[in-house]
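lol ok so funny story. i was supposed to be doing the assay writeup but got distracted and ended up predicting the structure for this chain instead. priorities right. anyway since i did it might as well share w the group, maybe its usefull for someone
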Amino acid sequence: MSAARGPEVHVAEAGGAEACGRGGVSESSRGGLLPMLVAASAALLLAGALQAVSLVGRVTDPAGAALEGVLVSAAHAELSFGGVALSDAEGAFEIPDLAPGPYVVAFEKQGRLTSELEITLTPGASISLEQQMRPALGFSRAPTRRPRNFVTVDVRYATDRSPQGREGDRQLYSAHRGSKLRYGVAQVTIPRDHRLGEFEQPKWWKLEFRPDPAKHVTLASVVPQSPQQFAEALAEGSVALVFVHGFNVAFEDAVMRTGQLSYDLRFNGVPILYSWPSNGRVQDYVADQDNAARSSSRFAEFLELLASSTETAHVIVHSMGNQVLTGAVAHLEGLADAGPYVQEVALVAPDVDAGVFGDFAEKVLALGSRTTLYVSANDRALIASKTLRGGYPRLGDFDSQRGPFVMDGLDTIDVSQLDSGFLGHSYYGDNRSVISDLFHLLSGDKTPADRGLQSVSFQDRRFWRFVP
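and the output, tada:
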């Protein structure tokens, strides 16, 4: 990116004052110093949250025409707080919930000179920036400021959720069923010091009360697109990766998870989220199951668009999202004769009745060139689901009596030997060994043996297992 220093802007209220004091600490008071510091820090952060300031503005070219898609980032000059936004069709942007203090605001867009401003935000002050960006004109200069401490991932999405207004640069989607498929693109930020398999979010016990792109996976923007715009964006990439989330997942969390998964897999293509209307609450399990079933026809419609717009695509489906997939294949007429729609299909911890899946298995296998099933005996979520259904095994469960689901044309992989966390259900994005296996799965034609998995036989049925 090119860089051009902008003017410095300072906004402060008249009459502002600071006060500080200094005092000694006696030996007898040192025992309570740490709790006092923690309480003081919490009070300061809470005060900052209550006095949060929104930074708004508009970005244009030198002629005054609005610039859409400008990445605007605000980084606190002294702390690690900050925020990001994407300018809309009118060039407008908003970064909410900023703590008072000095900031470096950067404006970035391909083909334009990167510009920076220094501003100071104070409680109660009103500030609106008007920023112009000049064409790069074929030359570049390294930014004079410190490098940005996060990276961005563009995630395309398709959803049959109902829209629910806007919040700054983000189109919101509810847990209610929509009347049609809707498309768009979201921008997810990943901290530069992100650790593989981590989904970094603010934690109250760390005194983190708002998302910070330098520390957390955040959602910068959600911009709707027409079906034509969506298809054109897919056609520009050589390969696409579709993620279908499971039960108890809100739209925003699903988008961020897709961005994290794409980043961890080092995926060099177009990441896509298909989001069905999960209610995002544990107590709404039955409602989620109904919504997943209803979304099947819409997901089939999406798969038709995907197949006609991309050269190569892969699909990773988690948990109850597999009910969406299983139902969708029934709506794809002539699937077996048409040939595979996608390359790789990964069914991860599928919350689907194993017997019901068996009825649809041939069609599911016809969807991709290769299908891989990940199962675990330690998946507490699926154990609970099986209990609710009278003990009938789930597809993603490793039943101690029956063993895992195995059939010709399906690579079944047992992850029971791995540390998959307390619930043992989200290992697709949490466990490094599974992420590594998915990486190699998407990278070529490597067999499970080529990927270092161990061949196992159970009641004369062959499957694969991770070696701890």
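The radius of gyration is 25 Å. Residues 1-31, 43-49, 139-144 have pLDDT under 50 and may be disordered.
back to the writeup now i swear
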